Amino acid sequence: FPPTVDAGHRAVIFDRFRGVQDVVVGEGTHFLIPWVQKPIIFDCRSRPRNVPVITGSKDLQNVNITLRILFRPVTAQLPRIFTSIGEDYDERVLPSITTEILKSVVVSAA
């Protein structure tokens, strides 16, 4: 059965002999070599993520802030994202970035 890439999704092809290919595959039905090639499908639509953070202000009070982020991957960089970070790039990258940004905003606003 040929893999189908749904609308709003992109696929990166992993080849057992050549590794991750640099070509990003768009929507539609694509033919792959069974056992040799495997599609890794990414959702490229904008998705929301809520990040709650408890941080301290200048006057030493705890501040509860929730940041809502709309994010999506850069389609041309999907092979690089997959090889360097993995399929769960949002779980690895977003929490650390948002925590640091929110802390700096709270410190500058107070």
Walk me through what this model shows.
There is one protein chain. With about 110 residues, this protein is of the alpha+beta class. It has two helices and seven strands. The strands form three sheets. It has a three-stranded antiparallel sheet with strand order 3-2-5, with helices on one face. The radius of gyration is 19 Å and the shape is elongated. It starts with a strand and ends with a helix.
Helix content: 25-40%
Question: H/E order of the elements?
Answer: EEEEEEEHH
The structural domain count equals 1
Across the major sheet, the strand order is: 3-2-5
The beta-strand count equals 7
Q: How does the helix and strand content classify structurally?
A: alpha+beta
Portion in beta strands: 35-45%
CA distance, first residue to last residue: 58 Å
Mean pLDDT over all positions: 88
Q: Radius of gyration from the CA trace?
A: 19 Å
* Largest sheet, strands/sense/barrel: 3 strands, antiparallel
Contiguous uncertain segments of 5+ residues: none
Shape: elongated
Total helices: the number is 2
Please summarize what this structure is.
The protein has 110 residues and is an alpha+beta fold.
Q: Keywords for this structure?
A:
2 helices; three-stranded antiparallel β-sheet; mitochondrion inner membrane; two-stranded antiparallel ribbon; Band_7; 41% strand; 110 residues; Prohibitin; alpha+beta; DNA synthesis
